[in-house]
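It is worth pausing here to work through a concrete case rather than discussing structure prediction in the abstract. The textbook approach is simple: state the sequence, then state the predicted structure, then interpret. We follow exactly that order.
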Amino acid sequence: MQELKNKKILLIIGGGIAAYKSLELIRSLKKYGSQLEVILTSSGRKFVTELSVSQLAEREVHTDLFDFKSELKMGHINLSRNADIILVAPATANFISRLAHGRADELATATLLASNKPIIIVPAMNPQMWNNPATQKNLMSIKKFGYYFCGPEVGETACGENGMGRMEEPGSIVHYINEYFLKKNKLKNRKAFVTAGPTIEPIDPVRYISNNSSGKQGYAIASALSRYGANTTLISGPSFEKAPEGVELIKVKTAIEMLDAVKSCSPSDIGIFAAAVVDWKIKEYKDHKIKKNGYDRKLEFIENVSVIQGVVKNNSLKPKLSIGFAAETENIYENAKEKHSKNDLDWLLANDVSENQEVFNGDYNSIVFFEKSGSETWQRMPKVDVAEKLVNKISEYFQ
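Step two, the predicted structure:
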């Protein structure tokens, strides 16, 4: 656990019977040399005492948002700024709901809302509460904020029921935090680019051809690459997604603009082609708005440039690891396998984008992963989890 030495960790202890595990967690983190600050919520004080937490942490415990002494120094700001990571353990269903809705009505939630540091959530609740659609919606919201999750695990909870919702044991949490710090260096000094979102091809100054891509998957991948330490550039078509922290964003519209942007980032160690590039464009662009009357209602298309082939087929531009995506509505395996081979990609991720899958503008994805030695199916999961799984695989490739 060498990565924990001298790391500054802000621990937030929420309510719930699992709060007793936080005492052992403090002991373990101190054992491995971590420097702790602790916020004990009002609900947390119902289960563990301020005195016991303070004795183990060897620090004064923070409890009140309106504490005169600490707020003279803007305590809720400084607590987050001075930490390397923030750990919420346990995080109840209620606490997670308040995070999802941006509440800042006590020291813990105000500190998290003001934070610019990585946040790890350790959930603990009854299995039915965990599986409740409202809780799952809140979990998805804070995942999209970039929060990390350690657990929960399947087991017996305090109420006697078995299922998903049991808080991870302190040893597992300590291991997770250590792995988090290890990840930060796994792709250090690696150069990566990711294409994301749709492209558009203008018909006239008013109209254009495009597709339904939101860019969510590509943005999630760029964020994960940055967290693993890669020097990451995100080349995005029009998207409403927020640029990830620590990622250089290049905005483009057309396929040719995207190709030029990718070339400007080449050569790279990692090239991920997640954008949905429009395959066709208008042969003759009109520089004025086409009127309904006086037009023969015919548009002539020509094949668009291939961003993938424009880079991968050029030895001076080809990344050390080239990864593509294939959005398909039928014959997914066959079509994706052909694209994988045709474009000389190292890996390809195929996904079913038919309407019943709700992939476009959705938060989930189902993937068939292709590499030259074969393929494997990934279960349906949030796009942020697809990104994490992919980037972890990339880090293993470069080890």
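Step three, interpretation. The mean pLDDT is 91. Residues 383-397 form the longest helix (15 residues).
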